Amino acid sequence: xxxxxxxxxxxxxxxRGRGFGTANARQVTRTVTAYRSLFDTAAGTAVDLDSWGRLxxxxxxxxxxxxxxxxxxxxxxxxxxxxxxxxxxxxxxxxAALGARSAECTTVVGLRTGAAPVAVQCWDWYxxxxxxxxxxxxxxxxGRVTTTVTEYGIVGKIGVNDRxxxxxxxILHHRxxxxxxxxxxxxxxxxxxxxxxxLNQALSRIAQAPVSASTCLTVxxxxxxxxxxxxxxxxxxxxxxxxxxxxxxxxxxxxxLSAPAALDDTELVGGPDTVIRxxxxxxxxxxxxxxTEERALRALDAHLLGGGATCAHPxxxxxxxxxxxxxxxxxxxxxxxxxxxxxxxxxTHPLIHPESPAYKENPMTTAPLALKRIDNMDILSHDVxxxxxxxxxxxxxxxxxPYERDENxxxxxxxxxxxxxxxxxxxxxxPRRTAINAENAPGMDSFAxxxxxxxxxxxxxxxxxxxxxxxxxxxxxxxxxYRYRPFFDPDGNMLYVTEPxxxxxx
Length: 506
Fold this sequence. Notes:
Blueprint: E1 5-8, H1 13-23, H2 25-43, H3 49-63, H4 65-78, H5 82-89, H6 91-97, E2 106-112, E3 115-126, E4 133-139, E5 145-151, E6 158-161, E7 165-171, H7 185-195, H8 199-207, E8 215-223, E9 226-234, E10 239-242, E11 249-252, H9 267-270, H10 273-284, H11 293-300, E12 324-333, E13 338-343, H12 357-361, E14 376-381, H13 384-394, E15 398-399, E16 409-413, E17 418-423, E18 447-450, H14 454-461, E19 466-467, E20 472-475, E21 481-488, E22 494-501
Parallel strand pairs: 1-4, 14-17, 18-22
Antiparallel strand pairs: 2-3, 2-11, 3-12, 4-5, 5-6, 6-7, 7-8, 8-9, 9-10, 12-13, 15-16, 16-17, 19-21, 20-21, 21-22
């Protein structure tokens, strides 16, 4: 089984939802059908899904109106009542209100010095929903990016954004759960990923959420070489926090680690495997200094507890309502703002089991490409000869391959990369860019030539190029700084001469 990936770029929440619902109508309908069956089983009778959906929608409209619009769009696109899609977004809350026991998951985070954190989760859920999830990448109109691993029709779950915030997700059970429908925790998770620019904003958003079903949201933050993580344990009565140990390692399963909520924890009766999972993973990492993804996966690759193991598989000895398995093993890359989701448990994950058939079938979990460097770049031009003469005569670069004017292409040696110029006879050149990123449309922006002395470079180019702007300086908090100046080539492509000053290693 491979991981399905969907990318949304629509400008409004409703249009994004409608696009998703239209493209995935069959899968969203199947998710609604599956949860209707789970709700009926938990209740022992047919539930009024529309009634639950209306309660959920009221909460979503109150606390996340943009996501209420997105859910309405999903419903319209999939040809379903908005109440049905609202209900599956509150699946945790409805199951809690119906008194169902549902178990998921095991989370491991490791903070590291000078590197992004390790953040891994085994997502355990009902076997019947094994093919009802995907990775959803959402490009917002202002350029922000949210990526979430979630179920079709549910707006969010595990995920990461492009501002260094990640979320992992563990269900909890508390004596106060199930009194009506509060703000659905899956919608809360997505709203945090959409809105939070830093760890404090994420924690404030979570802390203010009026929930009706207990959940642990492990929030991981990474920016500018600094990292932190905390498991936020939500329940209707209060809130608690669990922090990493002195090595920076944080393990969470499905029971409360904080007081006073632990005193009213019902999972210790309904799912006592949670305490053994927590202990086994903690002991498996006892000799670890700084955690690696491989070591985290090996700690999670355990089957001692059968259907309640960290790497869970259906247990025929349990009833149909208790058939859980690890649907996905999810890794967050907070540096890149990306998610890697492997279908199945750690026992088939390629980082520790490259011989697994699942490895070869899944494009999202193949070994990283052995990319070495950028070899070449291409520019299309109406006038190849004019551009070739600019790069060789004005900028003083050499041809990488012999230049024949009549062939309408040129290869320019730019040091460690080759620039190919090819002829184009259609269309017009895209509008000229500026030195201010916020003023430019998405796409390739520029490339920069390193120089030892910017003053000398400016003097050599003066009168020969069209400058875009004055000299610019930019400094990073770690001490690295640049000074540079942008200019246009004859076609209007933006180039820079830049004088970099890289901070020495500490």
